[in-house]
Specification:
Elements (H helix, E strand, L loop, with lengths): L8 E4 L9 E4 L10 H7 L5 E4 L3 E3 L2 E3 L3 E3 L2 E2 L1 H22 L5 E5 L1 H12 L6 E5 L17 E7 L9 H11 L3 E7 L7 H12 L7
Parallel strand pairs: 2-3, 2-8, 8-9, 9-10, 10-11
Antiparallel strand pairs: 1-3, 4-5, 6-7
Length: 209
């Protein structure tokens, strides 16, 4: 599908009324199909909303521009987060779903974190896998207890040491209820990520936000 703001995306209807909808946000080089299986594994029966990033880096889809590895174009981050927020709001109206829990990996986790900081009303919470601080000077968001799970890799060669902790503190200072877990892994996801995300989502009240 393509919506009015030109996001190519996949939508899968909910199989359970009590399962929170998920917004699936892929990493660099992924697409709208990448995280569908992950979404089904961590929250069986959830509605799945999965857009493709609209920025291309050497032909690989991303959700925002970067200037170098780990150096973000923050003006573009803000712009793209607002565009994504508008897409989610439109998709909610079109498909009749509640505010989703974002599940993002790498670049997708970074745009999800930016969305929490710039347009927090769009999300019910977030699972941020291998995320970094997306904005050095974010707007003052009010997250009012939104649940956030951050899963970082102890041996991650892409995310600088301590960066996930900074993101955790930033979101907690804005009022989010944050859990940070550091796993004995690198940048790629592991079965431990799946297990932790599944257990966490099972405890998230779908009515939050």
């Amino acid at each position: 599908m393509t919506d009015a703001t030109s996001f190519v995306y996949r939508f899968e209807k909910a199989g359970r009324a009590d399962a929170p909808p998920l917004l699936l946000l892929h990493g660099t080089g992924g697409d709208e199909t990448d995280l569908l299986q992950l979404g089904a594994m961590i929250s069986p029966g959830s509605a799945l909303l999965s857009p493709r990033g609209r920025v291309l880096e050497h032909g690989m889809p991303r959700f925002f521009r970067r200037l170098a590895e780990g150096v973000f174009d923050e003006q573009d981050v803000r712009k793209r987060a607002l565009e994504l927020g508008e897409f989610v709001e439109g998709a909610r109206r079109r498909h009749g779903i509640a505010a989703p829990v974002a599940v993002g990996f790498s670049n997708g986790a970074n745009i999800a974190a930016a969305l929490l900081l710039t347009k927090p009303e769009v999300l019910a919470g977030a699972v941020l896998m291998r995320a970094m601080v997306p904005l050095s000077d974010p707007p003052k968001a009010r997250l009012d207890g939104k649940p956030v799970l951050i899963l970082s890799g102890q041996a991650d060669p892409i995310v600088p040491p301590g960066n996930a902790a900074r993101l955790s503190a930033m979101l907690a200072d804005a009022g989010a209820k944050v859990i940070l877990r550091t796993l004995p892994s690198g940048h790629q996801l592991s079965q431990a990520d799946v297990n932790l995300a599944r257990d966490w989502i099972a405890g998230v009240d779908a009515r939050v936000a």
